[in-house]
């Protein structure tokens, strides 16, 4: 029986998607629930699984096409999938042997949708490319370097032309190679750019700064991190301290937890905190719901789960919407100070930065302390400078005396 593979219902407010990569070709066998194709929307990548086992008899829509919910992507002929192994020749190509060895040693290689699309475009196997990303993940740069290397020298003329068009235009100048690369924005990157520009044009953004001495937080974390991980199965990170301190400060200054809708201010009596997470596809802000109701362990576990989904490309639109306040940590990349941009319609965002030992005057003595600059960007249309400053002071007080977090004072 023939089955039409269709675009699934798209998330609310998303009208269409881009087909970024087929994982199967016409004539190939597939198993039920096996991912066939990746569809990229403005915010997430959707996977389209096979509804049944069988054979792909026709690909209707090619890579790069724009599709809408209900569009037919391919035709599947339902039937049992046979498994057969082709005999290997004694003169098996070196690259193929290396690929099989790599699979045996390392298991499935995880790649982002963008990398899989690039591999598919040039008919490459992921095992042929050495990954330089975290945990050996393959990046787009790794693929492009492979295509330019001797190992990629056996590509077809069509592949070579594609590489030349997408990778670089080179000219020899004074003994040096000058390169240019033109790459179209992904839908996610284009949407991020649109939202950031909209925030700058809509809100009256202002940033205020303070600094916090993290001596007590570091000592507390150092003292209990091993027993915490042993009991709860998750590491005790810094973000849970900042999230909990933010919640207590938001309770004191509800307008910082509010949002703007036209000429109305919407006050929220719940605390859904967005945590900015960097991924291969760009910056994402998954939302952790009801953080005020979470323990430190519950928060860390939820954050790890969200970060994992962002990195693997399985995060959903629901995970990214509805936050009331956002925290971003540029310190993990070495940033000393920044002015983060609002995540509209929220009215404020907290920026964390790198921890550095700096000389501080404590009881008339100069001592080295682990200090961090904090930044609060806020919408001056509804938040006054006094409230913004006091909000940061409230966070500072709780982080410099973590017992306040437990006593909620």
Over all CA atoms, what is the radius of gyration? 26 Å
CATH class category label of the largest domain: Alpha Beta
The appropriate CATH architecture of the largest domain is: 2-Layer Sandwich
- Give the overall shape, derived from the CA principal axes: elongated
Biggest pleated sheet = 7 strands, mixed
SS-based class: alpha+beta
Number of domains: 3
Please tally the β strands and state the result.
Answer: 21
Task: Tally the helices.
Answer: 11
Average residue-wise pLDDT: 82
- What is the CATH superfamily classification of the largest domain? Chloramphenicol acetyltransferase-like domain
CATH topology of the largest domain: Chloramphenicol Acetyltransferase
Q: How much beta, percentage-wise?
A: 25-35%
Indicate the percent of residues in helices: 25-40%
Cα-to-Cα separation, first versus last residue: 67 Å
Low-confidence stretches: 83-107, 166-173
Question: What does the secondary structure layout of this molecule look like, with pairings?
Answer:
Layout: E1 2-6, E2 17-22, E3 29-30, E4 35-40, E5 45-49, E6 54-59, E7 66-67, E8 72-78, H1 94-106, H2 113-121, H3 140-148, H4 157-167, E9 171-173, E10 176-178, H5 187-202, E11 205-213, H6 215-232, H7 239-252, E12 259-261, E13 264-266, E14 273-275, E15 277-279, E16 282-284, E17 287-288, H8 296-312, H9 317-320, E18 325-329, E19 348-352, E20 356-362, E21 365-379, H10 385-400, H11 403-407
Parallel strand pairs: 14-18, 18-19
Antiparallel strand pairs: 1-8, 2-4, 2-7, 3-6, 4-5, 6-8, 9-10, 11-21, 12-13, 14-17, 15-16, 19-21, 20-21
Helix pairs in contact: 7-8, 7-10
């Amino acid at each position: 029986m023939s089955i039409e593979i269709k675009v699934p219902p798209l998330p609310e407010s998303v009208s269409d998607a881009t087909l970024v990569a087929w994982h199967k070709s016409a004539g190939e066998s597939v198993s039920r629930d096996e991912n066939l194709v990746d569809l990229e929307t403005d915010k997430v990548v959707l996977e389209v699984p096979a509804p049944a086992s069988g054979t792909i008899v026709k690909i209707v829509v090619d890579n790069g096409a724009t599709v809408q919910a209900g569009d037919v992507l391919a035709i599947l002929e339902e039937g049992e999938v046979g498994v057969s192994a082709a005999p290997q020749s004694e003169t098996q190509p070196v690259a193929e042997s290396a690929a099989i060895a790599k699979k045996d040693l390392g298991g499935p290689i995880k790649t982002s949708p963008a990398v899989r699309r690039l591999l598919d475009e040039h008919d490459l196997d992921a095992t042929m490319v050495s990954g330089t990303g975290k945990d050996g993940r393959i990046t787009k740069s790794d693929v492009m370097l492979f295509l330019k290397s001797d190992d990629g020298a056996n590509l077809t003329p069509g592949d070579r032309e594609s590489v030349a068009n997408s990778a670089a235009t080179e000219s020899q100048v004074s003994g040096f190679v000058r390169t240019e690369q033109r790459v179209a924005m992904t839908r996610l990157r284009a949407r991020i750019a649109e939202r950031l520009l909209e925030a700058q044009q809509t809100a009256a953004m202002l940033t205020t700064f303070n600094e916090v001495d993290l001596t007590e937080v570091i000592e507390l974390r150092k003292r209990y991190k091993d027993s915490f991980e042993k009991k709860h199965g998750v590491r005790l990170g810094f973000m849970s301290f900042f999230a909990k301190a933010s919640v207590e400060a938001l309770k004191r200054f509800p307008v910082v937890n509010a949002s703007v809708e036209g000429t109305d201010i919407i006050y929220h009596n719940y605390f859904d905190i967005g945590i900015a997470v960097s991924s291969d596809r760009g910056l994402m802000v998954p939302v952790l719901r009801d953080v005020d109701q979470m323990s430190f362990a519950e928060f860390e576990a939820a954050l790890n789960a969200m970060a994992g989904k962002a990195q693997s490309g399985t995060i959903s639109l629901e995970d990214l919407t509805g936050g009331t306040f956002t925290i971003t940590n540029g310190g993990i990349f070495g940033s000393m100070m920044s002015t983060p941009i609002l995540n509209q319609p929220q009215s404020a965002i907290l920026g964390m930065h790198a921890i550095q030992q700096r000389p501080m005057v404590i009881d008339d003595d100069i001592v080295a302390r682990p200090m961090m600059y904090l930044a609060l960007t806020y919408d001056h249309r509804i938040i006054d400078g006094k409230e913004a400053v006091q909000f940061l002071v409230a966070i500072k007080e709780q982080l410099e005396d973590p017992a306040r977090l437990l006593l909620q004072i």
